[in-house]
Design brief:
Elements (H helix, E strand, L loop, with lengths): L2 E5 L3 H13 L5 E5 L2 H9 L1 H6 L3 E6 L8 H10 L8 E5 L4 H9 L4 E4 L4 H5 L1 H11 L5 E4 L2 E4 L1
Parallel strand pairs: 1-2, 1-3, 3-4, 4-5, 5-6
Antiparallel strand pairs: 6-7
Length: about 150
């Protein structure tokens, strides 16, 4: 069963992500952390390094408290045991600078949090696709639509 690490500080968004996965029949286990410092602690823990082969996907909010998502993504890519894990950036930011940084750091997807429930639930299809591929590819997902980069 796929394992997902979700770094998101908004409980409503955590709920919507769970609903998106359920809507698209993605059977997985998910660990939720709400703080950038906690994510960095997990990244540097020996436990995660030994279990890294089981971690299938990371969903990362860019606007986490205490450490931002770009810093976390950079640390993930610098950690050999974790560098292969696809990362989906999930954010309210539509900044070209953030998109460029996420792309340069090898994010598999960039998904801007949409305002409609239907668009948010479409994230489930993107996640299902990535879990099926078991590898990242340059994709930008914005507002529920997926475009190749």
């Amino acid at each position: 069963m796929p394992e997902i690490l979700l770094a998101e500080d908004n409980p409503a968004d955590v709920y919507l992500i769970r609903e998106a996965l359920r809507e698209h029949e993605v059977d997985c286990t998910m660990r939720v952390v709400a703080d950038g410092k906690e994510v960095l602690g997990i990244i540097s823990s020996e436990e995660l390094h030994t279990q890294a082969r089981q971690l299938s996907l990371i969903i990362l909010d860019l606007n986490l408290p205490r450490h931002d998502g770009i810093e976390i993504l950079q640390r993930l890519r610098e950690t050999p045991e974790l560098a292969h894990i696809p990362v989906v950036v999930l954010t309210s930011s539509d900044s070209p600078k953030d998109r460029l940084a996420a792309n340069q750091l090898g994010a598999a997807c960039y998904f801007r949090k949409p305002s409609s429930l239907a668009q948010f639930l479409s994230l489930g299809a993107v996640l299902k696709d990535l879990l099926g591929q078991k590898r990242g590819r340059g994709v930008t997902a914005i507002g529920g639509t997926v475009d190749e980069v």
